[in-house]
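Pilot study result, target chain (105 residues):
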Amino acid sequence: MTEHHPMVPSNILLNTWESDWFDERENVDVLWMQAYQAGADAELEACCEWLKDVDEVADELRLARRGAPISLKERAFKALKAVAAMTETPEDIKIIRQALEQLDD
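Predicted structure:
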């Protein structure tokens, strides 16, 4: 197979799920739910990308199908979990930095 299908998870995500399973950090049911959610999210993003030229329709579709986005605090906790597992991305570091910048001194 020479063409990568857009619904196939990235190698990084597959490796993370595999490690979580083999290292017994996560239950198989949770991994299935994460995989299902990742596929649904990828499909939604593909639809939104297709609709991006229609005024605000993509944003309205995303809001209708996923509800309000998760808070910066919740995103920062997820990013911190990725850092602790050494699977962080540059986006994870950016989210943590944004969350910390919002804290009072």
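One observation from the pilot: DSSP finds five helices and no strands in the chain. A full batch analysis is planned for the follow-on phase.
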